[in-house]
C-alpha cells in the first residue's frame, strides 16, 4: 500500500513577553505546518475540524450582547473601535430575555466563536491582551488591573446616580441618587487616587507610555460627570485633561461627550 502524505499543524504562543510579537492588528501566534508520511490519514471531516479550530483561535468572530442603551458595554465597544475589530451588537430587550442564556445571569456578555463570556472586566482583559491594549510588562498589567478593579467597584456603587444625572430611561430614584453620597465617594476617594496615579505616571496615560484599556474604563466613568457636574473635577486637573484626551481621540468620536478645553490655575 502506498503511503499518503498529510499535513499536520500546531499552534504555539510564547508566554514570556520578550518572545511575543505584537502589532497594531494584534498579537501574532506562530503557526507551523509540516509534511509527514502516515499510513492512517485523517478523514476530510477531521481535517476540517482541525482547520476550523485553528482559524477560530486566530480570527475569532464576536457578538456583543447587551441591553438597548449599551451603556454597560461601552468600554468593550471602545476597545473594538480602537482595535479596528469587527463585531456584531445584539440588542437585548429588558422585558424579553432569559437570564439563563448568559454567564452568571448577567449582561453584558461577549459571544466569541459561539461561546459566551460574562463580566465586563474579564472581557476587557481578554480583548486587551489580544489587541495590545494591556500593560506592556507584568508590572504594568498588574497596575492596570488594580486601577480597573477600584474604578469598576465605584462605578457599580454610583450606577444609579449616573443614570439619574444622565436622565436614563426607566430610571427609578433611590437613596443612591443623592448628590452628597456620590460626590463624596468620588471627590474623597476615587478622584484623588486617580489624580495621584496620573501625577506619578511617565506619560499622560494612567499606566506606561501608551493607552491601555483602563484609560477607556476611567473615561467612561468620568466623562458624564464632567458633562453634568463639572465642578466635581475642579480640584483634579490631570484627571480632567486625561478625559479630554480620550474624548477627543480620533478613533473614539461619538462615544463620549465633548470635553471643553479648560485652563487650571496652579495652587500655591
From TrEMBL:
This is GST C-terminal domain-containing protein. Gene3D superfamilies: 1.20.1050.10, Glutaredoxin (3.40.30.10). One of its GO terms (molecular function) is glutathione transferase activity. One of its GO terms (biological process) is glutathione metabolic process. Coiled coil: none annotated. Residues 137-268 form the GST C-terminal domain. It comes from the Eukaryota. Residues 60-135 form the GST N-terminal domain. It holds the Pfam family GST_C_3. InterPro entries: Glutathione-S-Trfase_C-like, Glutathione-S-Trfase_C_sf, Glutathione_S-Trfase, Glutathione_S-Trfase_N, GST_C, GST_superfamily, Thioredoxin-like_sf. PANTHER family: GLUTATHIONE S-TRANSFERASE, GST C-TERMINAL DOMAIN-CONTAINING PROTEIN-RELATED.
